[in-house]
Amino acid sequence: MKMKGRSIFTYDVHAPTTITTMLRPRRQEGQSIIQEGFNIEPPVPFSEYTDLYGNPCQRTILPVGRVTISTEVQAQVSPTKPIPDPTPAYMLVGDLPDEVMHYILPSRYCQSDLHEINVLAMEIVENLAPGYEQVEAIRTWIHNNVRYQYGFSDAATTAFDTARSRVGVCRDFTHLAIALCRNLCIPTRMTVGYLDKLKDMDLHAWFEVFIGGEWYTFDAVQEKTEGYRIEIAHGRDAADVAMVTQYGNATLQSLQVEVELLEAEQ
Length: 266
Known about the structure:
- This protein is α+β, with helices and mostly antiparallel strands.
- The chain has 4 helices and 14 strands.
- The chain has 2 domains: 96 residues, Immunoglobulin-like; 135 residues, C8orf32 fold.
- Strands 3-6-1-14 form a 4-stranded antiparallel beta sheet, with no helix packed on it. The chain has a 4-stranded antiparallel beta sheet with strand order 4-5-2-13, with no helix packed on it.
């Protein structure tokens, strides 16, 4: 299926402001980039680099005034990968590949080592088999017990905060899921990008777990993990996958996001 995603960030810049962005899509298995665009208005030069997680990043200095950052991508994508039957087996920590080990550690927004997180994880999974069944139970519990609401959380909200308040948005749902899964020694990462099945269209966050030697997608916002996705970035938590990070005096005035499914190639 061909899928198109577009986002427009509008800033009022009060002093020259250095920014880094993650707005261009990853090139990886499962999504073939047909075309993409990245534009800053008024035009300014920018450089690009790849971060520790393989995410394409951009860097520039925004001039004073009204600045618009527009990005667009069209990709050939497959529907969210289904979980095979039988479900993937849980992997002991000693059997995990080196490159996923940091995804079982606590991180800035996902305090998986806290006693309260452990208690909640044990309550949710009870006597379920390690691995997929535990992850799906966590995903379902968050969907059923955390209320989706804008304006309640902010950039400082952590998984522990959400476990207590049980209110948040996709970022908060994802952080809590990551913390609970990592508490069970299941490698889990945060992924951001475009999803076609959203009631209120926005850039979206979900989580991926490493079970049976592969990464699988889970989405606690959805009743059932489904839909087409374009992945922009992944990392340990929101600190690693911020769409825009600024180092100066600029105010975001608006963000417009559009997602469209196009005709499948014949």
